[in-house]
Design a protein that fits this description.
The protein has helices at residues 32-35, 92-104, 127-137, 150-157, 175-182, 241-247, 264-271, 276-291, and strands spanning 2-12, 15-20, 23-29, 45-52, 55-61, 67-68, 73-74, 78-84, 108-114, 141-143, 164-169, 209-212, 215-218. By secondary structure, it is an alpha/beta fold. The longest helix is centred in the C-terminal third of the chain and has 16 residues, at 276-291. GTP binds at residues 114-117, 169-177.
Length: 299
């Protein structure tokens, strides 16, 4: 058998479909993977052996740069966080939760705002405010001004080349609809948002990486909530880029930006150069990690 290097593009029913040398090979994992407690993931770079595209064995999983649990994907480059401005209402808390998780995994975030055309101007949060807060941090913010905003979709597609992209965000915000717009071939099942539950649902059962715009996109809307922050308290401040930038001027080197004197982060919050919502969410996440139980409150 020939030994080849490739990337797992799909995992289904115990088979791993590996892309290598311009072709897709159907493989199975050797039994020792289970003994070694190794679970191959879509996105993994691997070594396998095969004589033909329908019969092969996965031999080795190379070290990962990162991995996500929902969806189960490895070596992700960027995450598109889809947030609705209304129905469901925009939540700073939920968005920051996604961003902290992405930063912790060293995944570059892109914000995509939807349902802007449904706003009437009386909402608590404006599009301009969201664009200002997160644009100043350095995150790309794309605002879809209508349901089928071709300009916004084109703006998003420019980030795809040479990168592995996953989607995530609020349930009911339009993740599946956006993926279908980007690639009509996906035909992801979508359901109308449930008014009684305030959330939507999807029926994606497995993850597959699809070549799109010279990159790869996971064909799943991904997760819609984050119930637990898997990090230590000392790691949390590092996931807020504006905190990292300010912390070099803090009096204490390991400042947690909570009760310490001479804290530059707190000074910038008071001055308005760091958003109060970001700081409030940071304090809540810090409490969550200390208590090790999920606390979710919409803002």
């Amino acid at each position: 058998m020939a030994f080849l290097k490739g990337q797992i593009r799909k995992a289904l029913s115990g088979f791993y479909y590996i892309y290598a040398e311009g072709a897709t090979f159907q493989t199975r994992a050797r039994g020792n993977f289970r003994n070694r407690k190794i679970t191959p993931l879509v996105g993994d770079e691997v070594m396998f052996e095969s004589d033909n595209p329908t019969d092969g064995y996965l031999l080795e999983v190379f070290p990962r740069h990162n991995e996500l649990v929902r969806p189960p994907v490895a070596n992700v480059d960027q995450g598109v966080v889809v947030m609705s401005m209304i129905e469901p209402n925009f939540s700073y808390n939920l968005l920051d939760r996604f961003l902290v998780t992405l930063e912790d995994k060293e995944i570059a975030p892109i914000l995509y705002l939807t349902k802007i055309d449904l706003l009437n101007g009386t909402e608590a949060v404006s599009v301009d405010e969201v664009k200002r807060v997160y644009g100043e941090i350095g995150y790309p913010v794309i605002a879809a001004t209508k349901a089928n905003d071709e300009e916004a979709v084109r703006a998003l597609e420019q980030y795809f080349p040479e990168r592995l992209t996953v989607f995530m965000g609020q349930s009911g915000a339009g993740k599946s609809t956006l993926l279908n717009k980007i690639s009509p071939d996906l035909q992801l099942a979508t359901d109308a948002i449930s008014e009684s539950l305030g959330r939507g649902k999807h029926t994606t059962r497995h993850v597959e990486l699809l070549p799109l715009y010279d990159g790869l996109v996971a064909d799943t809307p991904g997760f819609s909530s984050i119930d637990f922050l898997e990090m230590e308290t000392t790691e949390l401040p590092k996931q807020f880029p504006e905190f990292v930038e300010a912390s070099s001027s803090c009096k204490f080197r390991e400042c947690m930006h909570r009760k310490e004197p001479g804290c530059e982060v707190k000074s910038r919050v008071e001055a308005g150069t760091i958003a109060q919502t970001r700081y409030d969410n940071y304090l809540q996440f810090l409490l969550e990690i200390e208590n090790r139980r999920p606390i979710y409150k919409k803002k």
